[in-house]
Amino acid sequence: MKTSDFDYPFDESLIAKYPVKERDLSKLMVVHTKNNRIEHRIFRDITDYLHEGDVLVFNITKVIPARLISKKEKTGGKVEILISKFIDDYTVEAMVNPGRKAKTGEILEIESVKMKIIDRNDEGLRIIKMIDGGSFYDVIDKYGKPPIPPYLKRESEEIDRERYQSVFARIEGSCAAPTASLHFTPELIKKIQKMGVITTDVLLHVGIGTFRPVKTERIEDHKMHTEYYKVFEETAEIINRAKKEGRRIFAVGTTSVRVLESSSTEEGVLLPGEGETDIFIYPPYKFKIVDNLITNFHFPRSTLVMLVCALGGKETILNAYRTAVEKRYRFYSYGDSMLILNR
Fold first, then answer.
1. What dihedral do alpha carbons 82, 303, 56, 186 form, nearest 10°?
2. Which of 15, 66, 116, 223 minimizes the number of CB atoms within 10 Å of its CB?
3. Can you name the residues that pair with 252 across neighbouring β-strands?
């Protein structure tokens, strides 16, 4: 299958540079895949599509202030560091910019903090080790900035510290937000729970792969970046019971989908545990756990669009995207939401 099969005409003016005033007042496109019907609502109306006994799965990862502005010890040249993964307290994997000038052996500094680029991996990411200044956790606490996506084309601001984070984020480790989660408020979650909808959690620390385009002509040739995930014992019990009883599983975001499908058996049993996943979901993938999906609008030709097409059907989803462009929905991290209803 070709990467170009997942293209759609996009207008860059639709990129949402800032969040809407209230999280749950973003627009919601509801896609009924059985009959290709599309409804246009606002996000807090999502309660109209949830039933007692449904299970809603949240990713409780917390975005760390993973963006650091350093300079070269020798020349003073600026080097931006975006931490993708902690190898240990003193060593990280990171994207650097400008990459071509960040050589192995280079010493980078932030005030009195010094770190060294010790390696470059096959994906072009740098392995950076702390030399002086404490752990990387100490450094990001003091100097880190919210790692808002580069396509916003602005510096991070105070609003991003709150809004580029879900209200239920608990476990630090992501360099990007699981953006479907950003639409939920504490009040909306309470309302959903009062309806008898069961909410449960998984964990996936979003890595650098979320920014990376698919550059191969054949999607099968694309290699996914690995990300840490965890399925809690209680979550596995809740979901397995619901599946056995024929109740619906709603994944909140593609990250939740990737956790659930990474940790399932071929028979559709969710296994508790943790590990690294590089699962790449694209048509005609057969979903074992997830029935329905709450998600944002994603880049053309991206792995996320491919995942959404696998769940909702390629033509149905790409038609929905074309409609979203025509109706001027807001796109990407701070943008509007889509609910894909298969059942």
1. 40
2. 223
3. 294
In the block, tokens 């991996």 appear at 121
DSSP states of 109-159: EETTEEEEEEEE-TTSPEEEEEEESS-HHHHHHHH-B----GGG-S---HH
Q: How far apart are CA 103 and CA 38, in angstroms?
A: 50
What pLDDT, in 10s, does the model give residues 77-88?
999 999 988 999
Residue 126: inside a domain: yes
What's the total number of domains in the chain? 2
pTM: predicted TM-score of the whole model, two decimal places: 0.93
193, 238: one domain: yes
CA–CA dist 8, 331 (Å, integer): 13
Tens digits of per-residue pLDDT, 17-49? 999 999 999 999 999 999 999 999 999 999 999
Fill in the amino acid letter for 229.
Y
- Per the domain annotation, does 152 fall within a domain? no
CB 327 within 8 A of CB 38: no
Q: Does residue 302 lie within any of the structural domains?
A: yes
Token pair in block for residue 19: 């969040």
Q: Is residue 151 part of a domain?
A: no
